[in-house]
Write the structure tokens for this entry.
Amino acid sequence: MKRTGLLIVSLVSLGLLAGCGSTPKGGPDGATGTESTTTGVFTGDGSGGVGAGGALGGPALGGPPRVGSGSLDQVPMSHRISNMDAAGGAAGGEPEHIVHFDFNSSLINDEASRLLIQNARWILAHNPREVIVEGHCDERGTRDYNLALGQKRADEVKKFLVSQGLDWYRVKVITYGKERPLVFGHDEFAWAKNRRAELRIAQ
Amino acid sequence: MMRLFFKVVLLPAMMLVSSPLQATLKIDIQKGGLNPLPIALPEFVILDANGTPIAGGDMGQRLAGVVTDDLKASGLFRPLNPSAFMQDSTSLWKTGPRFREWRLVGAEAVVSGAVRAYGGQISVDFFLHDVFQGALIGPGKRFTAPLKDWRHVGHRVADEIYIRLTNEKGYFTSRIAFVAQQGRRKWLALMDQDGANRLDLTQSENVLVLTPKFSPGGDQLFYLSYEKGPPRIFRWDLYTGRRFMEGDHQGLNATPAWSPDGGRMALTLTKDGNAEVYVKDLNNNTLTRMTQNNAIDTSPSWSPDGQQLVFNSDRAGTPQLYIMSSQGGQARRITYEGQYNAAPAWSPRGDLIAFVQGGRGKFRIAVTDPDGRRVRTLTDSWMDESPAWSPNGRVILFSRQRGDRTQLYTIDLTGHNERLVPIGDGLGGSDPSWSPLIR
């Protein structure tokens, strides 16, 4: 999988996904079959037994996506700094990569706009190889709706970045719905942190 | 076809007093188990090759245990404690019920059963008696199956008792596909409806999998996997273990739902700009776009006749349920109460739609008729979702998140009899799909 080898420069990633990114499972190109092992469930002779051990199957699929699959057990360092501080303190440095949303909303608010403008400038200046926008939701609401809402948030961020001069085809989008919370908690603080889009910038 | 190798024989009412009158013992299923029927399920006797009762192992007890647990979990039956029984199983099998004694222990129905095991096969006979009428309810029946499927035979007996006493099909010979969960790890798994015989399907630590959905034949699953990067719909043939990716459209590919005839899939794609519902013909792979608007349209579910789709859309500002023809056309809004009505599941009986009703900080399971006129909230917890119907349309399976833990529960459509589905090994579970009956 081509993303495995990417240098993920997000502060979050550096802090907490470092171990994950270096996991040797699947090798550098991830082209192993171990991630797509399947189990035959019903014996095909019609005897109907539920037993393991049918045909291994499927086309040879790539390895798992490495992006955003780490577990984050605490609020990462970068989020203890307010967005304003991170933005203001980043004289020429890399801006904060996370923007937040209101409940059930994909509207890019003023704070998010400021941050995305900084990101767009940084990306145009540094010309990274790949930009991935991940859309995320808080844990409330249904699985399906949150998948679509995460997609919509990420798509809105992509549109905004493109409006700032980025090439449409360079920005990739993926939704995780409510599957990848940044903060584990069940209160408004955690929910507000988890309603977000994250930029993953690979050089 | 997923068919258990199963023989069913109607037994003559040998050695039993048979009444020409139709037995009248019936459970009023609409009351949802407010008055569960007291039933006696003594252990099945073990028979030798000549049909003579012998002492031999605990299979008779285990079979009666499966039947007992099924009927009890339905909420419609109250299996009696066997330690109070006055007539032993052998005598019950040989001479028939001494009805006066069964009345004394409070039974309204009594089951006499026998099991024979030979050459890797198991053969189970059973009779259901109406204690007050002193008569058989239906004919005796024999099931034969490979010994390893003995639990399935027990479920089959439970299905028979259920249909004879409720006039509706049972659901005990069915399976659940779900996303098993341990810590942050999730994988696809199958198990019997009672939580037994769990089989883990996916092995990966890192690939996120979501929302398995049984095919109408119960032999295949659609599900969502992130193994290619963004979420894509896959098909898993449970017979062979073969998997196929069902399309690779730009953006989100999600919420696969098999049409009742198995020929089409309803799904959500964002390839045309935002989340819209589409129908894919599985024979020629043509896609038909069903919804056209600038809102999130998702979670399609088919009416049992395949003519309509119910889905949720936030075109009016908040997620609400809509119904439209599966041929396309205008959608009709059916929910107006509350700020969040989503994830509809159309009952296989067609009369009700289960859904997730959000409001006042909670997400609960509710049902409505397809007109949206009679909405009833069934559960009361903080985050209940993913309703799925039992094959007979009586019971709703759903997931409940409490804090960090998500587990599977069932509830009767009347709102009674909420129960935890035991998964075992301390695992959590979510995204349940309920198979059709497996015969």
